[in-house]
Here is the input.
Amino acid sequence: MVTRDFLPCRIAVLTVSDTRAAEDDRSGETLVERLTAAGHSLAARAILKDDRAAIAAQLDTWCDNAEIDVILSTGGTGLTGRDVTVEAHRDVYEKEIDAFGTVFTMISMQKIGTSAVQSRACAGVAKGTYLFALPGSPSACRDAWDGILAPQLDYRHRPCNFVEIMPRLDEHLRRK
Here is the structure.
């Protein structure tokens, strides 16, 4: 059996909230703790208000940054009028990773039952960068990281993972 070496990802964390600041950003901190404990590096971190254009602009800027492989956002995935993170993500996506939301809902159902239907967690790819929109609770961030992202962002995970196809995400942009 062939073993692979771990390949760390450079991950940016964006917290979307009208009320959070750096000192009380528990969800963003949960993601930072988990990604660094797994051996990845924090490439950037920001907190933005629930503003679709501003969120999309930040995501787009980070997608243009060759030093960022993955973007994790937390917050703004619910159903209220101020929850616009999903729309901002979709403004940026080239391709959506449809099964991410489904798998996240399956994991959430085990913990919070039918309340899981209120989350619109989603994921996609843009400019060779993975983007994941997670709910704003620390528990939901732990569930997404532990249940989906930790294994999929680990090159050693079999039978397949996000890291092994990362070099091919923007191949359509390199074709003549």
The CA atoms of residues 4 and 126 lie 27 Å apart. The chain has seven helices and six strands.
